[in-house]
């Protein structure tokens, strides 16, 4: 199962958060957030139902 999930990895490296009332969005470098583990895989929401 893990191999099938990893095949569908998005490869996302950044996330942008838009906060209500904020002047600018917050940009998060995901490689820094998840650098402590190699077990994080970002996939699209509908992908699990298609496997």
Task: Describe the model.
- The structure is a single chain.
- The protein has a two-stranded antiparallel ribbon with strand order 1-2.
- The N and C termini lie close together (9 Å).
- The protein has three helices and two strands.
- Helix content is 27%, strand content 16%.
- It has one domain (2-50).
- The mean pLDDT is 80.
- It has 51 residues and is an alpha+beta fold.
- 0% of the residues are buried.
- A hairpin with an 8-residue loop joins strand 1 and strand 2 (26-29).
Structural class: alpha+beta
Distance between the termini: 9 Å
Strand order of the largest sheet: 1-2
> Whole-number average pLDDT?
80
Question: SSE order in H/E notation?
Answer: HEEHH
Strand content: 15-25%
Poorly predicted regions are none
- Overall radius of gyration: 14 Å
Shape: flat
Query: Helical element count?
Result: 3
Whole-number total of structural domains:
1
Major pleated sheet: 2 strands, antiparallel
Write the layout of secondary structure elements.
Layout: H1 2-7, E1 14-17, E2 26-29, H2 30-33, H3 47-50
Antiparallel strand pairs: 1-2
């Amino acid at each position: 199962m893990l191999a099938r999930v990893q095949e569908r990895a998005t490869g996302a490296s950044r996330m942008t958060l838009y906060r209500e009332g904020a002047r600018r969005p917050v940009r998060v470098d995901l490689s820094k957030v998840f650098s402590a583990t190699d077990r994080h895989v970002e996939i699209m929401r509908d992908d699990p139902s298609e496997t």
